[in-house]
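for the writeup, i need someone to sanity check this before i put it in the appendix. the sequnce is what the collaborator sent (i think, or maybe the updated version? ugh). structure was predicted straight from it, no edits. if anything looks off just tell me and ill rerun, i have time this weekend
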Amino acid sequence: MKGTPFDFNTPTTIGARINQDDEQLRTGGGYDHCWVMNKSGENVLDLGIRVHEPLSGRIMEVHTTEPGVQFYSGNFLDGSIVGKGGKVYDHRTGFCLEAQHFPDSPNQPQFPSVVLEPGQEYRKTTIYKFSTREDGG
């Protein structure tokens, strides 16, 4: 997806391109899409996503054995939910990164399978790692 609003191969602010004239962004009201991870092997725990907030220096990394990560940009937050300390969750004031298989996997034989046969065990790992940078930048 190079050159599109979905290209996060280089660090880009989440909201920098969220309002661009793009059919998929219009349909979802922002980001609500599954990104395919560059995996080093099936069931290998790889770093899939790294998010950095430059003002505070906060960093979140998502390491997962899953093949994809759903990124949702708070498109349907509307101020009706109040969080910790009375913080109101307005439109796009948060985001989610959800490790998963691809949404259409059951219908796409070339995608990693989501079929679990009787007696089989489903085991995947996702680690959310939080840290900060001393310089905040």
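The radius of gyration is 17 Å. The first strand starts at residue 32 and ends at 36.
thx in advance!!
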